[in-house]
Each structure stands twice: as C-alpha cells, then as structure tokens.
Design brief:
elongated; two-stranded antiparallel sheet; alpha+beta; 53% helix
Length: 74
C-alpha cells in the first residue's frame, strides 16, 4: 500500500463530540514510509541542483569527501 492509499483508508469516528481519524497500524507505517521517500527525493533534487549550480564541482557545492568524514559516523 502506498501513502495515498493509506490516506484513503482513514476512517472517522466521533469520540466525546470530536471527529477523530482512525488508521490501521500497517497503513500508518506505509504512510510514514511514503512521506520519508518524498523527503529523500526532495533532498536529492536539492543536492543535484546545488551541484549543477556549482558547475559539477563537488567541493564548490559544499560536498564533503567521504574519507574526511567517515570516522565521524562511529
């Protein structure tokens, strides 16, 4: 199930006079994954745009070399 399908699967109930959205747990997780994928795609597009604006020069685009930062991940 994709995010749009998860959104369409929402059911509404009224609790104490308040309208509440109810979604299946698996559908909720699919929705979160869908949103994360959208965010990742936006980040990739922005990185590509920055690199293109820097004429393809990764240093000028502000990209770091893997060898310089790989130790920071430990």
């Amino acid at each position: 199930m994709n995010g749009l399908e998860a959104l369409q699967s929402v059911q509404f109930v009224t609790v104490d006079g308040k309208r509440v959205a109810v979604v299946d747990g698996d559908d909720w997780e699919a929705l979160i994954e869908w949103l994360e994928n959208i965010e990742d795609a936006q980040s990739a597009r922005e990185a590509y745009r920055t690199l293109k604006d820097a004429g393809g020069d990764r240093t000028r685009a502000g990209w770091l070399r893997w060898e310089e930062i790989e130790g920071d991940l430990d």
